[in-house]
Amino acid sequence: MTQPATPPAPRAYGALNWIGLQTLYQREVRRFWKVAVQTIFGPVVSTWLLMVVFVMAFGADKRMMSGIPFADFLAPGLIMLSIIQNAFANSSSSLIVAKVQGTTVDFLMPPLSAGELTAGFIAGATTRGLLVALAMAVSITIFANVMPKHIGWTLYFGLTGAIMFGAFGVLGGIWADKFDNLAFVTSFLITPLTFLSGTFYSIKVLPEPFHTLSLWNPVFHLIDGFRYGFTGHADADVMTSAVSTGVISLMLVFACWRVFKTGWRMRA
User: Fold this and answer.
1) What average pLDDT score do residues 213-234 get?
2) Alpha-carbon dihedral angle through residues 91, 96, 98, 101, given to the nearest 10 degrees
């Protein structure tokens, strides 16, 4: 008599579902890696063209800003802008596409906790942002000196910027019901914050109240701290920038965890 097949034992999970977290992270990375020409090298080309315009058309290689060559001043800001934009784009597009296509069940049904979902999406966004930054730094070495003077601060602000806007992208993707909603966030929130953050100028030249308002812009502190890592120059206190951006990042990560925990705008 044939014995009935023994059903497989249920998989035991510890405090963290490493397999599920790794799978979600790999999914997020493969999403942008399959179109690396668009997601990695596209931003590099755009930034390279900006450097060409500033350095060649305006003679920025001979100009000084805050006592350092303008090209060296500009390069860290452009790299940080790309980190911010690509981290936000990765997590927000992943979630809005899943909502539009009705595939949110792919990551809501598996045994993934709110913390694991938060970590997976933000880690994927952070990876894209940092890969773009690395490719960009290599590509603009012919225009500017991109050898960091303070490698620790460079890594801290680069990682913090990627996490902050990766988390912001998660919140934006969950909040949005269609791509137009994300376009609104990008056009009326992210773009003003990034272009009014001291990327192309020192905020010390701004009159009041614009100088003070710039100090309340978290993107300014990301760029200023990142620039300090490369050049040794900062318009604000580096420790203040580090603490403020770190606190904001933690608050956004907690907000992502809370949203996944409650299922806000994720469940029908």
Assistant:
1) 94
2) -150
